[in-house]
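Collaborator request log, item 7. Partner lab (contact: R.S.) asked for a structural prediction of HTH cro/C1-type domain-containing protein to inform their binding assays.
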Amino acid sequence: MDRQQLADFLRTRREALQPEDVGLARGPRRRTHGLRREEVAALSGMSTDYYARLEQERGPQPSEQMLAAIARGLRLDLDERDHLFQLAGHNAPARALRTDHISPGLMRVLDRLADTPAQVIGGVGETLIQTPPAVALLGDQTSFTGMRRSTPYRWFTDPTSRRIYPEEDHDIHSRNYAADLRRALAREGSGSQADRIVHALLEESPEFAERWARHEVARRHGEKRMQHPELGILTLHCQLLLDEEQAQTLLVFTARPGTDDHDKLALLSVIGTQQLASSSAHESSARA
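Returned to partner:
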C-alpha cells in the first residue's frame, strides 16, 4: 500500500470534482476548490473521519468494498478505479462484462435526478444504486446479497417481492423477467452469474421453468403500474438509458404532466426515504 500516492490521488480527484458534477449546490460562500472531504465521504457512504485519514496518510488499509465505494463517490472511470485499487495494495477488479462499477456518465445523469425515481440496474437485474424517491417507490433494493441481488431471482422465489405491482400485472412481469435472463445468458455465456441464476430458478421455481421453456426474448416496455402503500396505484412511464460497455441500464420513472400520477410522484420526492406508517405496519404484519 502506497499511502503517500493514495492520499495524493484521492486529494487530486476530489479537487477536480465540482459540486455541480455530483448534483450538489455550490452555495454563495463556498471557498473550497473542488469538493469538501465530508462531501466525498457522504457520496461514498462512509464517515468523514475515515475518508480524511486516507488523505492524511493514516488509518488502516481500506478494503476492496471501501475502495469500490470511494471510486463511485469520486466518479472514477475504470482506469482510475484500477489505479485506486493498486495504490491501496489490492489487485484491480477483473474487467468482466458484468461489474458493479457504475460509469461516471451514468452517475452524472443520476446526480441530476435527485427528485425523480431512478436507479441503475446491472446485467442480471441487480440494483446498484437508487435515488431517494426510487427507494420510497420501490423499497431499498441495494442491500440484498448472493443471488437475491437479482430482481428476476427474487421475483420467482420470494412472493413478497411482487407486492409493488398489482396482482393482475404479475403475468407480464414474469414474462419480462424470464426474457431478461434469457438475454443475459446469451450475452454472458456458460458459467456466468446469469447461467447460475437460471439453473437455480429451473430447480426452485416451476413457474420460471414453464416460462423458460417458451424461449421468449421480447420484452414489453412502456407503462408500468406501481402499487404504493400510501399513494395507491401509480401509472408510470419507464425510460431506459443503456451503457452497453458495462451492460448497465439507468431506469427513470416519470408520469404525464397534469395527471394524478404526476402529482403523486411530486409527493414521493418529498417523502424520500421516510418510512411511512402504513408501510411499516405492513412489513411488521408480513414478518409476524
